[in-house]
Write a structure and sequence with these properties.
alpha+beta, 454 residues, DUF1254 domain-containing protein, DUF1214, DUF1214_C_sf, DUF1254, Jelly Rolls, Immunoglobulin-like, 22 strands
Length: 454
């Protein structure tokens, strides 16, 4: 039997549109990461893009030295619980060394995912990872591993993202204490490996310009229907088929070959990609439209960074909050609605009350973050965007429970330590993170309390 469709066979516009629609939805996350790689390739040096976001040439890494600032728009759903780093590697160019310094008893995790946003390396406190040097290699690398490398991780794709995360309490003392720890975080080409730990003062990074337009309120656009099918062949070469995907690749390639010979067919596919973006992808920004449904209208996922052929969840996560940790590292729980199923909006006041000893069960830490309708921080008078383990002034109720107040105006001086400011008269989302989750939160026997409207 033939491996796939004959690319010389005349096909109908309707068939080309069908394949284009499916291909656009399926490959949306991969093209998203591919275009981020193109952006990182324009970085002239290791620095901070717009003075805000870690930005580095390929096979390099930049680190923040404090919480991420609220005005970045490159990645939706950022948090202010950890100090972030970011780098994109091109493993067809070189294997890459990943440095892990000694973090002591502090929570940390390196997110390392391939072009599909699937994790292929386990590095973090929850894995008992030891300080040392680790090597990332591409799918076809056959070189020699040098002495001094602790472990090798092989990616299915040549493009990969590396994102260190190190927990930091929200205090001046913590900001100072964390600096010598994060100084040893780095990635670089294998040719530069000499067995010694390279260190940086990440507070001294230069400010760099942005290669993208970042003026909107939502996330920077990374996927464009008009160029999607021009980029897709390169993306498919980078990400070879998973088992069972061979026919999908052949079908898509045959239709793209036909469209290369027929401008009208290509125009129809681009038009269908635009429709798919609006009709299928855009609604996935809203958490209430997907995910495992839990009590009180919370939702979650169980296969983050391990999507495989779960194309729907992978694209949903990529649209709403791309670059999430694997389930052993972090459990994410999403909320767009109050207990009555009404959309959360800053015109109302809400409470979230954890019963005594019922805060999220974690080995690491937890936080409740508020995002605006675009999944970014909502400006507020006290510059507070989340509450949780990092906040040392939270006030517990007399019965041992913990009530958080989610509203646009202060609940009063006595309760302000527990206030999570909401945008006035605007929709918003609540997002609970449980880093290094314990079994009850992994198996679903613990779920968050209801969001009660006052």
């Amino acid at each position: 039997m033939p491996a796939g469709p004959d690319s010389q066979v005349k096909i109908t516009e309707a068939y080309a549109r069908m394949v284009a629609r499916d291909a656009y939805f399926w490959a949306w996350p991969m093209v998203n990461i591919y275009n981020r790689r193109l952006a990182f390739s324009e970085s002239p040096e290791v620095g901070l893009m717009n003075g805000v976001l870690p930005f580095a040439p390929l096979n390099r890494l930049a680190m923040l030295h404090d919480y991420i600032k609220p005005d970045q728009r490159w990645v939706a759903c950022p948090n202010q619980d950890v100090v972030y780093g970011a780098g994109i590697v091109a493993l067809e160019q070189t294997p890459v060394i990943v440095q892990v310094p000694d973090f002591g008893g502090r929570f940390w995790a390196y997110q390392i995912v391939d072009l599909r946003t699937d994790s292929f390396a386990e590095l973090g406190a929850m894995y008992g990872t030891q300080p040392g040097f680790y090597l990332l290699v591409g799918p076809d690398w056959k070189g020699e591993v040098p002495q001094g490398v602790t472990q090798v991780f092989r990616s299915r794709t040549n493009t990969a993202f590396v994102g260190p995360r190190v927990f930091m309490n929200d205090t001046a003392e913590e900001r100072e204490a964390i600096q010598p720890l994060i100084a040893g975080i780095d990635i670089y080409p294998l040719s530069e490996f000499d067995g010694t730990l390279k260190t940086h003062d990440w507070s001294k990074l230069p400010t760099l310009g942005s290669p993208t337009g970042d003026e909107g309120k939502g996330e920077t656009r990374w996927v464009f229907p008009e160029t999607f099918f021009k980029q897709l062949p390169d993306v498919m070469r980078d990400a070879s088929p998973l088992p069972g995907e061979e026919a999908r690749y052949a079908q898509i390639q045959a239709v793209m070959d036909a469209a290369e010979r027929d401008p009208d067919l290509m125009a129809a596919m681009v038009d269908e990609a635009g429709k798919t973006d609006a009709e299928l992808v855009a609604p996935l920004l809203q958490f209430r439209n997907w995910g495992t449904q839990l009590a009180h209208h919370w939702s979650s996922t169980d296969n983050n960074a391990a999507f495989g052929t779960d194309y729907f969840t992978r694209t949903a996560v990529a649209k709403s909050n791309i670059l999430v940790n694997a389930p052993k590292e972090t459990k994410y729980l999403y909320q767009d609605l109050d207990v009555n199923g009404e959309r959360l909006n800053g015109s109302n006041n809400y409470t979230v009350t954890f019963a005594k000893d019922e805060t999220p069960p974690v080995e690491g830490f937890w936080s409740l973050t508020l995002y605006d309708e675009h999944h970014f921080f909502a400006p507020n008078p006290i510059d507070r965007y989340s509450l949780g383990t990092k906040n040392k002034t939270l006030k517990f109720n007399e019965d041992g429970s913990l009530t958080l107040y989610v509203q646009a105006t202060s609940p009063g001086a006595d309760l302000e330590a527990n206030w999570l400011p909401a945008p006035a008269n605007a929709d918003f989302t609540l997002y609970l993170r449980a880093y290094w989750p314990k079994t009850p939160i992994i198996d679903g026997s613990w779920t968050p309390p209801a969001v009660e409207r006052l």
